[in-house]
Design the sequence.
């Protein structure tokens, strides 16, 4: 547990309880157990630490946050979402409208989410997806990332991996990406992530940043809490951008369009301009489908 405390830099001198003691006290309030579907790598101390950090080690606020999440997960069927995914209509539209992929792991073992944010299609989203559709698709991906990819990463690294790296390529972004509909969706997704997946963003690199992005980021960053904003790094295209990305990811897993050498068969991210696979399914999407098929058939377990 001491590694979690030292990582987040909390001092026991400023608190009635040390971080380690706070974890044990919060654990007692939950009878030492958490629902297994939300307890990443079966590491209760790590899960409790994330909620404590999110509420600045205020025990009562952390307890409320965690109880709210447990209720929210039960009310929304989150435990079963991997075997009860959104309709293919929703998933196919999201692959087309949000060019993306859960693309391998970074040097710290964290799953990497890559999105061509600047190529998101706001008109397709407005025409074909409700806010609830997008939220459900996002939740499915979060749960796959948490309960499958982070589990794989934890086994591989020999320690609990419970955070992710995001790379958002904003080349081509415009004011159409901050329409009222898009902002409404972004606000809802950001709120869910901050309330129910606390401290899971390890870092976010925003790359290929055009001049107009300053205005756009001002419009969306108000929906992010201070800790989340502190994990966002804005990079402009060029050798320095590639250098920074290569600090986080190995060259052979960083896509070529970001300065690396990875050229996934059929494309590294979804979308008709990026993926030549059937139905915009990258090899990463196909791997996720195969896992879920095995899960439903009882051939693999979580």
Sequence:
């Amino acid at each position: 547990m001491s590694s979690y405390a030292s990582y987040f830099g909390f001092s026991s001198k400023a608190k009635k309880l040390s971080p380690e003691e706070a974890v044990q006290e919060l654990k007692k309030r939950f009878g030492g157990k958490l629902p297994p579907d939300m307890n990443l790598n079966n590491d209760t101390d790590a899960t409790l630490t994330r909620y404590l950090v999110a509420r600045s080690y205020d025990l009562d606020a952390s307890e409320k946050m965690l109880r709210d999440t447990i209720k929210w997960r039960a009310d929304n069927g989150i435990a079963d979402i991997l075997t009860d995914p959104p309709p293919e209509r929703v998933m196919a539209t999201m692959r087309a409208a949000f060019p993306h992929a859960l693309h391998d792991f970074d040097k710290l073992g964290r799953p990497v989410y890559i999105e061509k944010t600047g190529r998101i299609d706001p008109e397709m989203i407005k025409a074909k997806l409700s806010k609830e559709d997008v939220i459900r698709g996002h939740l499915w991906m979060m749960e796959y990332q948490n309960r499958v990819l982070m589990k794989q990463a934890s086994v591989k690294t020999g320690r609990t991996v419970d955070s992710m790296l995001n790379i958002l390529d904003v080349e081509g972004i415009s004011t159409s990406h901050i329409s009222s509909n898009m902002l409404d969706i972004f606000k809802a997704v950001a709120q869910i992530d901050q309330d129910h997946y606390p401290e899971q963003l390890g870092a976010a690199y925003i790359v290929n940043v055009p001049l107009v992005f300053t205005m756009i980021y001002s419009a969306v960053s108000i929906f992010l809490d201070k800790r989340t904003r502190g994990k966002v790094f804005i990079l402009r295209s060029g050798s320095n951008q590639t250098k920074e990305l290569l600090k986080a990811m190995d060259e052979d897993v960083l896509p070529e369009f970001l300065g690396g050498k990875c050229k996934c068969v059929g494309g590294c991210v979804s979308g008709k301009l990026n993926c030549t696979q059937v139905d915009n399914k990258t090899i990463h999407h196909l791997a996720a489908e195969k896992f879920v098929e095995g899960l439903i058939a009882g051939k693999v377990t979580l």
Summary: The first strand starts at residue 100 and ends at 105. The radius of gyration is 19 Å. The chain has a mean pLDDT of 93. The beta strands are 100-105, 111-115, 164-169, 201-207, 232-234.
